[in-house]
Design brief:
Chain A: Its main location: nucleus. Chain A: Pfam families: LSM. Chain A: GO terms for molecular function: RNA binding. The structure holds two protein chains of two kinds. Helix content of chain A is 24%, strand content 37%. Chain A is α+β, with helices and mostly antiparallel strands. In chain A, strands 4-3-2-1-5 form a five-stranded antiparallel sheet. The longest helix of chain A has 14 residues. The N and C termini of chain A lie close together (11 Å). Chain B is globular and about 40 Å long. The chains are: A alpha+beta, B mainly beta. Strand 4 of chain A pairs antiparallel with strand 5 of chain B.
């Protein structure tokens, strides 16, 4: 549940999601769910010339199981809060 | 608290699906469930090649199993109409490797 809560805090920020098929999609985080499925708005594929497949798509739903990385804005991350939450989760689990 | 994927807003809209084997399928979203299985009406597959333009294969009414889905995108009809698919050259998408 930690990352679900963490991503909820990031709604509205711009992120880049790199998928397991090497596709990378940049967009504003609209919502996230318990499976860490991600909905992005104002999407642009990172290498549009190589991947023109999603040129007509501006909003998308990305299945959590296919995400490799979620690249976050550095100023969107409060490392201390993350540390504390992780410590608490590690203790409880 | 166990609600399904937020695909409700896309029902009856034209969507663009990227599958785990790298296929690109376009159709109208008619239904979905908690496992992201989807029902796609009037669907067609867009086959990309580096040698010739995009080929469109008519599929019809399809169910796509959720565990084979990577991306569900809302297709903007205006943007799509501006695309000249016969001029588009691209490598096919790579399959997903877990």
């Amino acid at each position: 549940m930690l990352f679900f809560s963490y991503f909820k805090e990031l709604v509205g920020k711009e992120v880049t999601v790199e998928l397991k098929n090497d596709l990378a999609i940049r967009g504003i985080l609209h919502s996230v769910d318990q499976y860490l499925n991600i909905k992005l708005e104002n999407t642009r594929v990172v290498d549009q010339d190589k991947y023109p497949h999603l040129l007509s798509v501006r909003n998308c739903f990305i299945r959590g199981s296919v995400v490799r990385y979620v690249q976050l804005p550095p100023d969107g991350v409060d490392i201390d809060i993350l540390h504390d939450a992780t410590r608490r989760e590690a203790r409880g689990g | 608290m166990s609600y399904g994927p937020g695909l409700q807003s896309l029902i009856d809209q034209t969507i663009s699906v990227i599958t785990n084997d790298g296929r690109h399928i376009v159709g109208i979203l008619k239904g979905f469930d908690q496992a992201t299985n989807i029902i796609l009406d009037e669907s067609h597959e867009r086959v990309y090649s580096t040698k010739e333009g995009v080929q469109q294969l008519v599929l019809g009414l399809y169910i796509i199993r959720g565990d084979n889905i990577s991306v569900v995108g809302e297709l903007d009809e205006e943007l799509d109409a501006n695309l000249d698919l016969s001029k588009l050259r691209a490598h096919p998408l790579k399959p997903v490797i877990h």
